[in-house]
Design goal:
globular; DDE_SF_endonuclease_dom; alpha/beta; 5 helices; nucleic acid binding; DDE-1 domain-containing protein; 3-stranded mixed sheet; 5 strands; Nucleotidyltransferase, domain 5
Length: 140
């Protein structure tokens, strides 16, 4: 990964009652050991394994009864294994029609852009700090 590149997938989810689920982030690059709460992928972004991990770590602990989960039309969301995993949790996945995000995904419209910019800024500060520390000699 180039030193000034940044690629991340961020999962934010809020229930109809306003309960905020734990944020889930996938960074592209190598795991520097400091971001273990986040997943770090070498080249892939969002794949089937990541979706299952989100379901197991974030969705499952918070689902208490039959639920509906609104998802966009990302290919991985429609995979049979993902549907099965959700159905085992009594979750009915519903897919948002293309072009309808502005009405049905409030987080995409109001929160994600600002959130991703802040995460990118923090990431870049960390990368700059890490590169400054690795270039220092033992006598400094």
């Amino acid at each position: 990964m180039a030193t000034n590149s940044f690629r991340a997938s961020v999962f934010l989810c809020v229930s109809a009652s306003g309960f905020k689920l734990k944020p889930f982030m996938v960074l592209t690059g190598s795991d520097c050991g400091k971001a273990r709460q986040e997943l770090v992928q070498e080249a892939r972004q969002f794949d089937e394994g990541i979706m299952h991990e989100w379901i197991d770590e974030v969705w499952a602990p918070n689902v208490e009864s039959t639920s509906v989960l609104l998802l966009d039309n990302l290919k991985v969301h429609k995979m049979s294994s993902v549907r099965s995993n959700l159905e085992e949790l009594e979750t009915l996945p519903q897919f948002i029609p293309p072009g309808a995000s502005s009405v049905s995904q409030a987080l995409d419209v109001s929160v994600m852009r600002v959130f991703k910019m802040k995460v990118e800024d923090l990431y870049m500060q960390t990368r700059i700090f890490a590169s400054d520390n690795t270039s220092m000699s033992a006598t400094e």
